[in-house]
Amino acid sequence: MNILYFILSFTFLLITIAAGAEWKMMLIYGEPVDSSDSQIAYYSSAGCQHFKFMDSEIRKLNSSENKLVGIKRFLGTEECPKRVLNPLVDTAGSVSDTWTISNTLYNVTIVSNGSTVTISRRVYECDTGSKLFQRGPVYVCIGLRFFNSSKCGTHPEAVSLCQKDGWLTITGPRGTDELDYFLAQRKNASLGSGNLIWVDGINDITVDDTTGGYVNYPQCDGFSQTDCKYMGHVACANVSTFRCSWRNDGVNCWRGAACRRELTKLQ
User: Which of 63, 44, 85 is nearest to 1 (CA)?
Assistant: First the structure.
């Protein structure tokens, strides 16, 4: 019978705790199918071997073989899958662990077909000028883009700006953390104070579905679903509305746009 153990603490792999989750080790009776490097620990009569993590495949064995494979998993501090009819042990199934460290996203998928377990690891990061945020089940890279030559621009020009040079779309601040990040990046603009930022939204329409719509924007008093949306005014830095065709109002300059881009796959 295949047996699955979860060890809550261990000495040869770093334990990291974040957002209510921590590293744990899953032990499976089995052996690597090939010698390709992977971030697993393989114990047999020859001793314990550590491998750098790439994709790997494990052949399940009976406990009498006395061969164990240890796999790092990132789980909730109280979360350990039940031993009874666990799909990774008894039949077939899959699990996926996702976590972030700084501006990098890690995803490990473990798939069992009954006799073997396949482990795949993918690593993504956000390019320079963007930062990783989680929006519900989705991870995104967001940042500010500025119009060339210290110019001010209209909302249609902002939409176009967010579709160039590897960027995908104009976006908006989903929550106060994103708003604070966007506002802090205005220091990279070259016109000093009065730099307003266009965000996703024309009348009652948004194009970036990862924000979840206006309901998730931090909003100024008097926010309405008319005209175009922007943020960063000295009187209220949250999202407000103004005419789409304006570049400046004599005091403030619409200096750039909040944009989203794809994550870059590293492995």
Answer: 63
